[in-house]
Design brief:
With about 300 residues, the chain is an all-alpha fold. Helices cover about 65% and strands about 0% of the residues. The protein folds into 2 domains: about 180 residues, no CATH class; about 100 residues, no CATH class. The protein contains 18 helices and no strands.
Length: about 300
């Protein structure tokens, strides 16, 4: 995806911060007791009326003590509502304190971009792991997103999987704001860390020629070393198959595993070339099974993750 396309996509993003903060607040109130609700509403009111950085820091660290550490539970209606409010964002795996911390960040009244970044830098500098997770998962909801690319890149460089996941999985920020080189490195690192690619928003949308070459090379290295490869790794190929793609897909189809073979069929189907059509014809039985079962990349990713994590 070119820089001009990313800029156009970003200009079309509409994030209703007020509606989102109200939504997060309603989620929390439904899942916490009355004393916790009273504490939360009092603190949020203070942030709205006379916002002081010290109050933000104190509330950020005190959240688990007052609200607990339960998982966040969403109804089907709430999941659908979230899709309307922020495309690409999922609260899967979020906790009550994580949600409250994100709400806190979104509720604070920042004077300008400079004060916002200074405050965010301060919080990051003292954050422990759970707080880092909340900070990175808040990226698609925070103001001045163009100024947060470097911060996102720092999160991607980490070797802590929970922090990496907060930036990369179920988070639309990387798809919407990272340039091609940074995006490609992120996807490759997700493969290396064996993270579930189906949870990366925009994976097919951001497919590109360079990434397809990197994935093919990564697969060759794994095969030479006799190490297994995730069938999901071929999903970002999209229409940009490298020169070796059909040899790669033949090798993939020869692996005695239904998800590897299904991945070969789905990858060939996305290429839309004469060679791809010939490949599908020569593997007609597997292609028919994939079609009959309506197998998707998400299906493959979910099954692979369930048996290899």
């Amino acid at each position: 995806m070119s820089e001009s396309v990313i800029s156009l996509m970003n200009s079309e993003l509409q994030v209703n911060t007020e509606a989102l903060t109200e939504f997060l607040k309603e989620l929390l109130i439904r899942q916490i007791d009355e004393p916790a609700e009273k504490w939360l509403l009092e603190k949020l009111a203070g942030l709205n009326q006379q916002p002081q950085p010290r109050d933000l820091f104190l509330m950020f660290s005190a959240v688990p003590r007052f609200l607990g550490k339960n998982k966040l539970n969403l109804t089907i209606e709430e999941i659908n509502r979230l899709k309307e409010l922020r495309k690409g964002l999922s609260l899967e795996g979020w906790t009550v304190p994580q949600t409250a911390r994100v709400l806190t960040l979104c509720s604070f009244q920042y004077k300008d971009a400079s004060s916002f970044l200074q405050l965010l830098d301060q919080i990051f500098s003292i954050a422990e792991v759970a707080e880092m997770v909340a900070l990175y998962s808040a990226l698609p909801l925070l103001p001045y997103p163009d100024m947060l690319k470097t911060r996102a890149a720092e999160g991607i460089r980490t070797n802590m999987s929970v922090v990496f996941d907060a930036v990369v999985l179920n988070n639309p920020f990387p798809c919407e704001y990272l340039d091609e080189a940074a995006w490609n490195q992120m996807v490759l690192k997700a493969l290396f860390m064996e993270r579930p690619l189906y949870k990366i928003y925009g994976l097919e949308q951001r497919s590109n020629e360079q990434l397809s070459k990197m994935i093919s090379n990564f697969a060759h290295e794994r095969w030479v070393a006799g190490r297994p490869t995730s069938p999901e790794m071929w999903r970002p190929i999209g229409k940009y198959g490298p020169d070796s793609i059909y040899e790669d897909l033949e090798k993939l189809a020869a692996i005695d595993h239904p998800d590897q073979q299904a991945a070969a069929i789905l990858a060939a189907g996305s290429l839309n070339t004469k060679e791809a059509k010939s490949f599908l014809k020569s593997h007609a039985l597997v292609a028919a099974e994939v079609s009959e079962n309506n197998t998707t990349w998400d299906d493959i990713g979910i099954r692979w993750g369930a048996h290899h994590n």
